[in-house]
Amino acid sequence: MNAVIIPAGGIGSRVGEKIPKQFLEIAGKPLITYTLSLFENLKEIDLIVIPVLATWEERLKKLLERFRKPYLIVPGGETRQASVANGFFALPGDTEIVLVHDACRPFASPEVIRLVISKIRKKGAALAALPARDTIKEVVEQRVLKTLPRERIYLAHTPQGARYSLFQKALATAQEKNLLATDEASLLEAAGIPVYVVPSTPLNFKITTKEDFELAKCLLTARRP
Ligand SMILES: Nc1ccn([C@@H]2O[C@H](COP(=O)(O)OP(=O)(O)OP(=O)(O)O)[C@@H](O)[C@H]2O)c(=O)n1
Ligand SMILES: C[C@](O)(CO)[C@H](O)COP(=O)(O)O
Hints:
2-C-methyl-D-erythritol 4-phosphate cytidylyltransferase; binds ligand LQXTBERG; 7 helices; Spore Coat Polysaccharide Biosynthesis Protein SpsA, Chain A
């Protein structure tokens, strides 16, 4: 049994709209619907778990009516990490692989998701990450300190995940050491678990700012028949 946790408990302050970005509509559908559809259509995923703010639970339930895959809605936490932990603790005991994918990354390709799952099967823990394509500068107070070897730089995307027992260990270590991280890979690393990268694509960008949202709108509107 493989599960994906889709954290959707944020408020989207950097997009700056009145409602959380994952519920903003594009081409007549809330953004989260596009992300949920990715996993609804993936046979490798058996269960979808969605942490969400209590005020958005009813709306989400309504959206999920047309999905066939089993799902669980759990309370969002104060941080993304807390939301993911709430999702993890709701998983059934026979879960083998745990994936996490941001609700606001609607353009992940099925190929990348499958590659992450298969890397987790082989190695235990993995994430999708975009290899740096530009020349990378380390800068302090607008002054360049040095140029970093781009071959070693990857931008963390989702999905990320691990085998259930490794994920559990990463969360337990985070609690013991009082760690707060922006992604699961950081917590797995902190627990001493080797994490492997699968190449992601620029299209799998996270909708973080208003500009990202406008770009997503163009892409999703153009996709319509
Ligand atoms: N307490 C939180 C914070 C974030 N998220 C989710 O984690 C994903 C990635 O987080 P981010 O882009 O940082 O979303 P927000 O926290 O909503 O954005 P912002 O930081 O701009 O407020 C999003 O799908 C978001 O809904 C969550 O489930 N619970
Ligand atoms: C996991 C993640 O998508 C990595 O890019 C994460 O959500 C990033 O959070 P950020 O605070 O927007 O960097």
